[in-house]
Design a protein that fits this description.
mainly alpha, Hypothetical protein af1432, about 0% strand, globular, binds fe (ii) ion
Length: about 210
């Protein structure tokens, strides 16, 4: 099979740990890895617009690529089910930030400490109604607040088995209504003021075929 780096040209020289974990995600569910690759590219775009560079961008790139690694603990058929989750399934899915954190902590690598923290917090919300720890406002890591916007932007833009991809006006309306609720208002403004480059970053990511 083609090496994953062929589909992730913006990642540059992906370190061995990140490459190995990404390949494992691809074996489990290429659709989820495709989402993660797009979130990585969108996060990088937003990070550059904020003036980040070097190590911070590298951390963002890896956090985007690995943010849903905890979904390795969830059956692939459930992840892509053409329906909503039952309460029991939803509770299981909501464990994935903690599972991702626990997995990446094993890497015991200084940069992964920050990546794993962003992974843990990517479903926290500005208003404190997120999970797993109901953190509010700036208690959430700043790069996790950025990634949370990139994550939902891709999820809404993408067709799923249970929904079509949303058009721009509907996505803009969603973010405007969740500004200061689900999302950091500054991150929402950054996205909405730079919508076209974020779309270009997302659409620049090639489809990643299943590993088998
Ligand atoms: Fe997630």
């Amino acid at each position: 099979m083609a090496h994953l780096s062929a589909y992730l040209p913006w990642c540059g020289g992906l370190d061995d740990r990140s490459a190995l974990v990404s390949e494992a995600m691809r074996l489990h569910d290429a659709q989820t890895l495709g989402h993660c690759a797009r979130v990585s590219a969108i996060s990088l775009c937003l990070g550059r617009l904020l003036g980040h560079a070097g190590r911070t961008l590298d951390t963002l790139m890896k956090a985007g690529l690995l943010h849903d690694v905890g979904k390795l603990s969830i059956d692939q058929k459930l992840l892509n089910a053409p329906r909503g989750f039952t309460p029991e399934e939803r509770a299981l899915v909501r464990l994935h930030p903690q599972h991702g954190f626990d997995l990446l902590e094993i890497a015991d690598h200084e940069q992964f400490q920050e990546v794993s923290l962003i992974v843990l917090q990517h479903h926290e919300q500005w208003d404190g109604h997120g999970y797993p720890h109901a953190m509010a406002g700036k208690d959430q890591h700043p790069l996790a607040r950025l990634l949370a916007v990139a994550d939902v932007f891709d999820a809404l833009s993408s067709p799923r088995a249970y929904k079509p991809g949303w058009h721009e006006a509907r996505i803009r309306d969603h973010f405007a209504r969740q500004r200061g609720c689900q999302f950091d208002p500054e991150m929402v403004d950054l996205l909405l003021d730079n919508y076209a480059p974020c779309v270009a970053a997302r659409e620049g990511v090639p489809d990643i075929p299943p590993a088998w």
